Amino acid sequence: MGRVFVISDHHFGHGKIIDFESRPFRHADEMDEYMIQQWNSVVAKEDKVFHLGDFSFYNKDKTRAIVERLNGHKFLILGNHDRGRSIAWWLDAGFQEVSEFPIIYQSFFLLSHEPLYMNKHMPYVNIHGHIHSQKYEGKHYFNASVELWDYKPVSFDEIKNSLVPDEEQ
Q1: Nearest-CA neighbor of 1 among 165, 156, 138?
Q2: Are the C-beta atoms of 73 and 49 separated by less than 8 Å?
Q3: Checking DSSP bridges between strand 154-155 and strand 4-7, what pairing results, if any?
């Protein structure tokens, strides 16, 4: 297995998200193609990508066609817009793994769609999406929504480096 990446909230096929989040596209087709290109510009076939939800608004065939074009081993944590479809639906659409609930990765990172409550005494970092271009303050949260990362999955190395205080680098 290669590198590990995280990304959230593509909303493939969701034309209204362009206005909701001021995405720089004229229509959903243009947005979809750009996001596929950006994904494949950083993710290799042997890499793993955790998608933190709200992947596609398309039917299964069109969703599968997009998933097949994306590099890497794809793991979906269901977002609020994904939950109307079963885990089997998402597996059939091409994801290798699907979780209905947040997961703990490397005993330290809480991967979820929505931000989880974290207080200053918790030793974990919550990597999440859902809030799109908004950001929570502090070292306990990392927003992996596409709007903040030029629609490219973010590597775990980059996430870890961003959490180290400047004086420790």
Answers
A1: 156
A2: yes
A3: antiparallel
- Report the alpha-carbon distance of residue 123 to residue 120 in Å, rounded: 8
80 pLDDT above the threshold of 90: yes
Q: Which structure tokens are listed for 114?
A: 């929505």
Q: Is 104 exposed, middle or buried (0-12, 13-18, 19+ CB in 10 A)?
A: exposed
CATH number of 4-168: 3.60.21.10
Helices (H) and strands (E) in the chain, counts: 5, 9
**Domain coordinates in residue numbering, the chain:** 4-168
0.90 surpassed by pTM: yes
Identify which of 149, 103, 117 has the alpha carbon closest to the alpha carbon of residue 9. Answer: 149
How far is it, in rounded angstroms, from Cα 129 to Cα 81? Answer: 12
> Which residue matches tokens 């493939």?
12
pLDDT score recorded for residue 167: 47
Cα 33 to Cα 155: distance, rounded to the nearest angstrom: 21
Question: Do the beta carbons of residue 90 and residue 76 sit within 8 Å?
Answer: yes
